[in-house]
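Whiteboard transcription, Tuesday session. T.W. wrote the structure tokens on the left side:
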């Protein structure tokens, strides 16, 4: 019970507080959990025992990253279906678990789920859930600091251990899917490119965060900015977990107000595989209200109109392959996921998802 309550209060805190991004980024979530830790210690014995699921292992980060970069792609002749790895970087529980469960239902074998959660929150979802025992060995995450990137690399590395995983998407607990599973699966598996937003922003929050001490490993001209919420194909995922060249430089020289999660991947992907990136994210986020934090949708904001705008309100290029212009198609579906939603929006989101199913 203590565990349940503490995980719950954590989520309420995380979602309920509309703290500006620069403030949120400086919150150390280990500290948030600290107050509940003493309470939990009496029950952690059982929770730890439960954690011995398939995903649990005792590899340290070094060994994990090394092993992950060596797992070959599943051989085509084995006729195993390619899978999409859904990687959840969360603080506590996933408030939209029920929505996601409906999304995944009936598609076993085409996806895998990985959860990196605060080590202090040990609540396990029900056994029947697709989220049951999908937690990977996790460490405390400081929002916006290098530990965030380490968590992302840990997620990628764990997901790479499954040779069938072909596409890897990072999600947060405030993310929702915008389409049904087959649509999202086909969009990702069928894409020639990865979706990592990456742009050269001349402003203070872009080039302004570059440190000349990164030279010559990263030059100002190579410096990129983008959203943290990425989607990559397998080859690029391997490149990211095996990177020993750029990561130490970012760790050392990208400190607040330089946020490593907004610059490392956008820059490194542009260096490693510029021709393999669509340079845009498939995760919708609304910065239009200005300021340093995106809009958070509450229950009353959720409407069919909003969902339609997210689903089809933008124009972008899908599968723009420069060597093969006839594969170029302009798509009005640019976003597959959206954030940020408050937990209170769940009821309405379920209603809308149900209604959409009936119309199809
Ligand atoms: C993405 O950006 C890189 C440079 O950072 C560029 O070389 C590449 O052509 C861009 N890709 C697309 C699809 O625009
Ligand atoms: C692209 O166009 C060329 C020439 O018109 C054709 O030979 C080729 O098969 C096409 N490729 C695809 C993928 O449609």
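and on the right, the sequence the group agreed on:
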């Amino acid at each position: 019970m203590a565990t349940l309550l503490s995980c719950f209060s954590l989520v309420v805190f995380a979602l309920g507080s509309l703290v500006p991004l620069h403030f949120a980024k400086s919150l150390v979530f280990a500290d948030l959990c600290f107050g509940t830790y003493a309470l939990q210690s009496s029950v952690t014995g059982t929770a730890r025992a439960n954690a011995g699921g398939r995903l649990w292992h005792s590899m340290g980060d070094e060994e994990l990253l090394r092993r992950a970069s060596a797992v070959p792609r599943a051989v085509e002749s084995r006729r195993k279906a390619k899978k999409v790895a859904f990687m959840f970087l969360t603080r506590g529980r996933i408030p939209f678990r029920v929505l996601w469960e409906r999304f995944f239902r009936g598609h076993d074998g085409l996806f895998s789920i990985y959860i990196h959660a605060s080590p202090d929150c040990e609540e396990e979802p029900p056994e029947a859930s697709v989220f049951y025992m999908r937690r990977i060995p996790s460490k405390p995450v400081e929002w916006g600091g290098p530990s965030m990137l380490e968590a992302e690399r840990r997620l990628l590395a764990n997901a790479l251990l499954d040779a069938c995983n072909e596409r890897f998407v990072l999600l947060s607990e405030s993310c929702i899917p915008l389409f049904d599973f087959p649509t999202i699966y086909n969009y990702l598996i069928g894409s020639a490119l990865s979706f990592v937003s990456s742009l050269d922003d001349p402003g203070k929050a872009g080039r302004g965060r570059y440190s000349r001490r990164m030279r010559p490993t990263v030059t100002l001209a190579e410096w990129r900015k983008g959203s943290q919420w990425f989607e990559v194909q397998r080859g690029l995922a391997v490149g990211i977990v095996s990177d020993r060249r750029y990561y130490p430089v970012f760790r050392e020289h990208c400190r607040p107000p330089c946020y490593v999660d907004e610059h490392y991947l956008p820059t490194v992907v542009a260096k490693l595989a510029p021709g393999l990136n669509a340079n845009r994210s498939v995760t919708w986020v609304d910065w239009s209200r200005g300021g340093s934090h995106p809009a958070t949708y509450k229950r009353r904001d959720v409407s069919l109109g909003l969902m339609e705008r997210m689903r089809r309100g933008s124009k972008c290029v899908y599968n723009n392959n420069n060597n093969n212009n006839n594969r170029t198609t302009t798509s009005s579906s640019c976003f597959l996921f959206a954030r940020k939603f408050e937990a209170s929006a769940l009821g309405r989101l379920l209603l809308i998802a149900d209604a959409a199913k009936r119309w199809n």
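Someone added at the bottom: The radius of gyration is 20 Å.
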